[in-house]
Amino acid sequence: MKPSGHALAPLQSLPMPADFWKSIGRNFGIGLMADDKGDTGILVFVCRLSKMAHLAPARDKATGNILHSYSVFRCHRLPETIVSDRDLPFRGAFWDTLFQLLGTKLTMSTADHPQTDG
């Protein structure tokens, strides 16, 4: 493979949150072996400061996203920012409107780049 000759831009860190669960990372893994309930995915929320995680099995992205989001937000309140890759279920009109009404900022990262996890 031939080098492109272009200099790579330096990585830019995300600012560290001031308190626990003020900024979270969200990810969804799919294509796992089905469990006894038929779930083939896992939804993950991680506090960017403490690295505490909430994990939940999910059958599909949309249902898992809504149900698990509710349980995390119920325990820790709404975050100020959510860092997520450009996953479509988290980019729908429902989420855009909800975040706008609640004052939560959704920060999009690039998929498969763990350096944005904080």
What is the topological layout?
Layout: E1 23-29, E2 41-47, E3 53-58, H1 61-76, E4 81-84, H2 93-102, E5 105-108
Describe the structure in your own words.
Residues 11-118 form the Integrase catalytic domain. InterPro entries: Integrase_cat-core, RNaseH-like_sf, RNaseH_sf. This is DNA/RNA polymerase. It is a single chain. The chain has a five-stranded mixed sheet with strand order 3-2-1-4-5, covered by helices on one side. A hairpin with a 5-residue loop joins strand 2 and strand 3 (53-58). The chain has a single domain (23-109), classed as Nucleotidyltransferase, domain 5, CATH 3.30.420.10. The model has no long low-confidence stretch (mean pLDDT 78). By secondary structure, the protein is an alpha/beta fold. 22% of the residues lie in helices and 24% in strands. The chain is globular and about 50 Å long.
Summarize the structure.
The protein has helices at 61-76, 93-102; strands at residues 23-29, 41-47, 53-58, 81-84, 105-108.
User: Uncertain segments of ≥5 residues (pLDDT<50)?
Assistant: none
CATH superfamily: Ribonuclease H-like superfamily/Ribonuclease H
User: Measured on Cα atoms, how large is the radius of gyration?
Assistant: 16 Å
CATH class identity: Alpha Beta
Question: Top keywords for this entry?
Answer:
118 residues; alpha/beta; single chain; Nucleotidyltransferase, domain 5; five-stranded mixed sheet
